[in-house]
Design goal:
The chain is built from 14 helices and no strands. By secondary structure, it is mainly α.
Length: 320
């Protein structure tokens, strides 16, 4: 028996633990289980996020009003969840990543809703989901999380897929709305990277603070542009605040602590595939052939990257 094997046996590395199908027993199985849960949480987040564009169009309010009430409801919802199920004790949040995460998240939400009001949802979705590209670059620069080759390949497919998926809408868009959507994508990438920096702390506090910031910033607009309290916009507002913002915030914070920053954004790229499905069901718009091809590329990129990354982790563990 080698010295390394003796050391592993003494430190308990060979102890068997909970496993998931397809993962070896022991510590890798535990890590694989956590990774799978993280990926499913982010996929659910993408599903909830995909409803945002349609819901925003159903609310005839000023975008700052929508931002304010959406985040106010989400913040209250998250506080209730926190009270019912207190987060496990963790290390204290460091000031820099905490506030950077909160501000990036707040700014991303504000620009996303404003952009949806001044340009079409297809453009906003495409330009915001340039975020995986920015996540790879910013994650490499800020947290030294160098992407593997499968991530770079997936990023290229995601970018090409998004261009094909929504290319038809770019010609008629408004320049300001497109610019805000692109900046929102960069901020979303920053949010993902800073969340990754907080993986050993209670990162949901930063998301909660982001909603508080948006609610406070939007509060003056309640008096400048009083909302019309009709049934449809109020119901849509409640759905946005609880499900599309509140639950998705918790799921995304949970997921990003269990997968890499790049992987989280790749999985979240399922949103632009789901977005036109909601549009078709509610508004009746059909996706074009280019959109279907682009969506297929994105799905292929996400699934392939996940499988390759999983197998690489298994090989690396066996070689230790």
């Amino acid at each position: 028996m080698s010295n390394m094997q003796k050391e592993r046996r003494l430190t308990g590395t060979f102890r068997r633990g909970p496993t998931e199908p397809g993962f070896p027993s022991g510590n890798l199985g535990i890590r694989g289980n956590q990774s799978l849960r993280g990926q499913l949480a982010i996929l659910a987040t993408a599903f909830l996020w995909s409803t945002g564009g349609v819901i925003i169009r159903l609310i005839p309010w000023h975008p700052m009003l929508i931002s304010c009430f959406r985040s106010l409801i989400a913040a209250l919802f998250l506080l209730v969840i926190r009270f019912i199920a207190p987060p496990p004790k963790s290390k204290k949040n460091k000031a820099l990543p905490f506030w950077a995460c909160a501000v990036a998240f707040a700014s991303c939400m504000l620009l996303y809703i404003i952009a949806n009001k001044i340009t079409n949802s297809a453009n906003v979705t495409m330009l915001q989901y340039s975020a995986p590209v920015w996540t790879a670059l910013l994650g490499w620069w800020i947290i030294k999380e160098k992407p593997h080759w499968e991530h770079w390949g997936a990023l290229a497919l995601v970018f090409i897929g998004l261009i094909l998926f929504l290319r038809d809408g770019l010609g008629s868009s408004h320049l300001l709305g497109d610019a805000l959507a692109l900046i929102s994508g960069i901020l979303l990438a920053l949010y993902s990277v800073f969340l990754r920096m907080m993986k050993n702390t209670n990162s949901q506090d930063a998301a909660l603070m982001g909603h508080v910031i948006v609610a406070v910033v939007g509060l003056p607009f309640v008096f400048l542009y009083p909302p019309s309290l009709q049934f449809t916009p109020v119901l849509a507002m409640i759905i946005m605040g609880t499900m599309q913002a509140g639950i998705s915030t918790s799921l995304y914070a949970y997921g990003t602590k269990r997968v890499s920053a790049v992987q989280s954004m790749l999985i979240a790229s399922a949103e632009p595939i789901l977005n036109p499905i909601w549009v078709f069901i509610i508004i009746g718009e059909k996706p074009s052939l280019q959109a279907l091809i682009g969506g297929s590329l994105i799905i292929t990129a996400v699934v392939s990257s996940s499988l390759i990354g999983k197998r690489r982790e298994e090989r690396e563990y066996k070689l230790r």
